[in-house]
Design goal:
The complex is a heterodimer of chains A (250) and B (95).
Chain A lengths: L1 H23 L8 H29 L5 H6 L10 H4 L5 H22 L5 H29 L3 H15 L10 H8 L10 H14 L22 H15 L6
Helix pairs in contact in A: 1-2, 1-8, 2-6, 5-6, 5-7, 5-9
Chain B lengths: L7 E7 L7 E7 L3 H12 L7 E6 L11 H5 L23
Antiparallel strand pairs in B: 1-2, 1-3
The chains are: A mainly alpha (250), B alpha+beta (95).
Chain lengths: 250, 95
């Protein structure tokens, strides 16, 4: 049980750390000062959430590793984040579309996780729900603003949603650990989130005068440690210091 | 994308119940909803507030510096207008 909670918590944290790191890349490059701050705020929210989860995972693992070692000393194959989190930011439309589709899923995930039998995960979910609801509102407003904006913004946001779509399937496909987590009462039945997610995003997407992509083949593998070529580059950036100067502190 | 076309908004924050909203700065936003969200992100990240007002800067009418003397100087020597001759009970907050 401790081991399954460890692995489950770890890969949830991986999602947040990697997406947080991606959003952090916008720091100083946002399309407007205010948006720059908004995005880095979201990045910091995620990195804060990841820190909580890594600490708890380290405790459950009981192998003497701490949260920093979990974040900075694991290689790509040991990362269990969904592929959607590691995709490069591309343009602002892409970043916002990913943020919106992910936040819509993550909010539903946290709503379920707040019923977890694990007291820590339950508390974590309740606490993180507030900021996640804000992230969803922020990115959702931009979906409408860009979708229902100029011809160019409409085209860009539609293209972005079309490109990201094949990375959303993974969010709803349970693997053995997900099944175990549901059986043991601490995890979320991700398959059950799909219908609500689709209806939530359909509403926003039609408000934005956009269309939902058609059913198609979906990417997978992130949870099993099979990643896109992009993850290694993020880790190289993120882990350089700890790798070059082990145990560096400031 | 540029913010050239986004109008300027003035941001007012109420830091806690019982206090009035106070001007904290300005920002650019396309509409009032975005102005509220931007204000939340720019001005309340360190628990500075519990309520936000945003007002289009263009809606503010200001006094002219040229009028400073006629508007404000006459109050200079009217010390009796200050309620300093009363003791305020300690329980009265935020006066």
């Amino acid at each position: 049980m401790n081991n399954s909670i460890f692995r489950y918590t770890l890969r949830l944290a991986d999602n947040l750390l990697i997406l947080g790191q991606r959003l952090g890349e916008w720091c100083g490059h946002g399309p407007a000062l205010e948006e720059d701050i908004a995005l880095t705020n979201i990045a910091l929210d995620y990195i804060g959430q990841a820190t909580y989860l890594y600490k708890y995972a380290a405790e459950k693992e009981g192998a003497g590793r701490d949260e920093d070692q979990l974040a900075f000393l694991r290689d790509a194959g040991e990362y269990g984040n969904h592929l959607i989190a590691e995709l490069p930011n591309n343009d602002y439309a892409f970043t916002i579309s990913r943020q919106y589709l992910f936040s819509a899923w993550y909010r539903l995930f946290l709503l379920e996780l707040s019923e977890s039998h694990d007291q820590f995960l339950r508390g974590f979910a309740e606490k993180s729900l507030k900021e996640t609801t804000y992230h969803l509102q922020h990115s959702g407003d931009w979906i409408v603003r860009m979708g229902d904006g100029t011809e160019e913004s409409h085209t860009r946001i539609q293209n972005a949603i079309d490109k990201i779509w094949s990375y959303t399937g993974e969010l709803f496909v349970p693997d053995a650990l997900d099944v175990l987590a549901v059986e043991q009462g601490f995890g979320v039945d991700v398959k059950s989130l799909k219908e609500k997610w689709l209806s939530d995003i359909s509403e926003k997407i039609s408000e934005a005068t956009l269309r939902l992509p058609q059913d198609q083949w979906m990417h997978g593998g992130g949870k099993a440690g099979i990643h896109t070529e992009h993850l290694g580059f993020i880790l190289a950036d993120m882990q350089f210091l700890q790798r070059a100067y082990p145990d560096a502190k400031w | 994308m540029s913010t050239d076309d986004w109008p300027l908004w003035e941001v007012f924050i109420r830091s806690k119940s019982g206090l009035s909203h106070k001007h904290v700065g300005s920002l650019h936003a396309a509409d009032s909803k975005m102005a509220i969200e931007n204000a939340r992100d720019v001005y309340t990240r360190r628990m500075e507030g519990i309520s936000i007002w945003v007002v289009p800067s263009s809606a503010i009418t200001a006094t002219s510096p040229d009028e400073k003397e006629i508007l404000f100087d006459p109050a200079n020597d009217k010390v009796y207008r200050h309620p300093t001759f009363y003791d305020i009970p300690g329980d009265v907050e935020h006066m």
